[in-house]
Amino acid sequence: MVATGQVIPHEVHGTGPARVLLLHNWFGDRTSYDRLRAHLNGDAFSYAFLDCRGYGEAKDLDGAFTMEEVAADALAVADHLGWETFSVVGHSMGGKAAQLMLLEAPRRVTSVIGISPVPASGFPLDDESRELFTGAARNPGNRRAIIEHTSGGRYDQAWLDAMVGHSVERSSATAFRAYLDSWSGVDFHERVRGNPARVLLVVGAHDPALGPEAMRATWLRWYPNAALEVLQDAGHYAPEETPEALAAVVERFLGR
């Protein structure tokens, strides 16, 4: 791996023997998992929540802002915690970085859980979508349009305001823009094709971008031991939308 990892801001929830690292999505820092944490079993599991560079407590931390760097930093946190083996949960862009961790440290990563995860092939954008997504770095209205669309257009203005406000407050525009090129544009799916790792894909039925069909066309073709769970009441943001149902699915998989 070209990227050199460093120990980034993180916090551990729980004291259980099964260890899990969590990587957040493009729009939120580690606090985007706060609603999920309330439903996690800290006696059975230890969960480490990380802030990617440019987000949350790492908002002012410089970097290349690539998925390779996210993966290297997460492995550095695992080293810091003394975790030899662990599972990785990645939401959206975090799911792409989780796969790079699997490639870099296959004996350490015992399983991967992707929550509406970006596939290893990236997420190709047409010209109109690219303009919308690139503009989201500086324009909160663009972020709002993306969040509203990918959550299925089912939420009121107050919910959207809260999601957008949190995203703007907790992320650096520079990092936000740079990560887009890495998670959407880089394709390494041939490197993961046939990988025997245990993988769980958890997606929302109302996610038009990275829902069940997208998983069947990508992840499920490349990982022979992957399974798919669909949350009927969620869009793209299951940790915020359906945290209790998500926690149940995740811990059932981890406990097997």
From TrEMBL:
Q: Which UniProt keywords apply?
A: Hydrolase
| Top-level taxon | Bacteria
Please report the stretch or stretches of sequence annotated as the AB hydrolase-1 domain: 20-241
Q: Please give the Gene Ontology molecular function terms for this protein.
A: hydrolase activity
Tell me the InterPro entries matching this sequence: AB_hydrolase_1, AB_hydrolase_fold, AB_hydrolase_sf
Cited PANTHER family: MONOACYLGLYCEROL LIPASE
Annotated protein name in UniProt:
Alpha/beta hydrolase
